[in-house]
Amino acid sequence: METAQNKQTILNFFEAFSEGNSEKALQYLDDTVIWQSMGIKGELPVSGKMDKNGIAELIKMVKAAIPKGLKLTPVGWTAEGDRVAAEFISHGILTNGREYNNPYHFLFLFMDKKIVYIKEYMDTLHVKSVFVD
């Protein structure tokens, strides 16, 4: 049951994230949560480590850039105990008309039914080409 509950927590978190509802999204996260978006130098606006406040800011930034929401679709799961690895595909249209469509691999760690750690792998070149360039 724990595995199914953890997967549902992730889906609920990303649903609120996609809606731009940071208050609702943050309820699925432990106060000590760290989101580490992998990038060698951590130079992109979304690479490096974020705490809960940083995640709230990320949600606001994504909502401002993609006002109709960033759709995140799960395509694969591997779960064991308090660890869930999940593959997602995103899709959204930015206010400037650019299409954002990125594949992700996330590792989530749970404690007391809340997410305490998120490790994210994505196509950072696509992020740069759509959001920065």
From TrEMBL:
Q: Which domain of life is it from?
A: Bacteria
Domain SnoaL-like: from-to ranges: 12-117
Could you identify this protein by its name? Nuclear transport factor 2 family protein
Q: Which organism is it from?
A: Nonlabens mediterrranea
